[in-house]
């Protein structure tokens, strides 16, 4: 392809470095951006700059926030004796959308994955252990039920249990509305193992 | 969901206004952007601003360019007597990638679509007709073979033919590598109608 426009090609290059954006989608997005009114693209560029500059991580739970401490950790009504450990901010948001959990969170920033070179030191585990020196009654391990999430939960349970704090793991089983016939064997086995008396 | 971060939510909102980016992908992209080194997000934001500000449309063919006239129209080696009419910049790039066509282009900026309220006046047709007052021997209609693209080609053929300029339409038929059994009937009929002696 001949040289078309330096600034256009730079934009395509930057967009295609975003996760899930291939070179074709990047081109499509770039055309959209240059054909929009300039105020729209300015707004997008400014939103990127402002978010990158201003969004912090809560110094208690590591969740994104505009302040030093996030609105959940600051909330006086929430139960400070329960901490739910999640892999990332999106998982926290998913639980908050449910709206039933009234304790605090701790965002690890990932899960243990030897393949990706992520060990306990790459995650906010030291920060979690520091929080546990205060009056905490229960730690809920809400990492994903993937291999990495399970390994992380097992690791955390092993180091938290000796502190005489109750450690629980979110239930694994058949999703609500799920068709038994379409569910994988590991999940079905978990659902069977985790059966509760009614 | 509780209020998380003003700047973060603004970023998600802006990203989700891009075509093909839903609220979930916008969230994923936003997390990626805020977790990157700040230089990366600055580079993306600047690329957006620069492209939106600097990328122009060639005053001859309407293709995007950094200058008044694009590198194709400026290229002395290209045959100025043949103009290939395409719907948009991406189609031009697709043809340039083939690298066989040595004439000029004209980017319409879309196709006639009464449903979307796009008539001939919304496209760069006046500009095309102006170019045809110069020494042009052939106009190749390379609009899509969709209903809109066909309608646009028919419309253009009708107004260009009386100017005593050869008008051609790109061939429609079985794509190279295509399995006959999987190809739609209209395409197969076109392939039959457009058969060439060997």
Plain-language structure description:
Two copies of one chain form a homodimer. In chain A, α1 packs across α2 (23-35). Chain A contains eight helices and six strands; from the N terminus they run αααββαβαβαβαβα. The radius of gyration of chain A is 22 Å and the shape is globular. The mean pLDDT of chain A is 90. Chain A has helices at residues 6-15, 23-35, 38-54, 71-74, 89-98, 125-131, 147-160, 185-193; strands spanning 56-57, 64-65, 79-86, 103-107, 138-141, 166-169. The first copy, chain A, has a four-stranded parallel beta sheet. In chain A, strands 1-2 form a two-stranded antiparallel sheet. With 198 residues, the first copy, chain A, is an alpha/beta fold. Chain A has two domains: 6-54, Orthogonal Bundle (Helicase, Ruva Protein, domain 3); 64-197, Dna Topoisomerase Vi A Subunit, Chain: A, domain 2. The interface between A and B is large, with 58 and 58 residues.
CATH topology title of the largest domain in chain A: Dna Topoisomerase Vi A Subunit, Chain: A, domain 2
Averaged pLDDT of chain A, please? 90
Structural class of chain A: alpha/beta
Helix tally of chain A equals: 8
Strand content of chain A: 5-15%
Shape of chain A: globular
The span between the termini of chain A is: 67 Å
- CATH class of the largest domain in chain A equals Alpha Beta
Greatest chain-chain contact: A-B, 58 and 58 residues
C-alpha Rg of chain A (nearest Å): 22 Å
Fraction of residues in H or I helices of chain A:
40-55%
**Low-pLDDT ranges of chain A:** none
| Major β-sheet strand ordering of chain A | 4-3-5-6
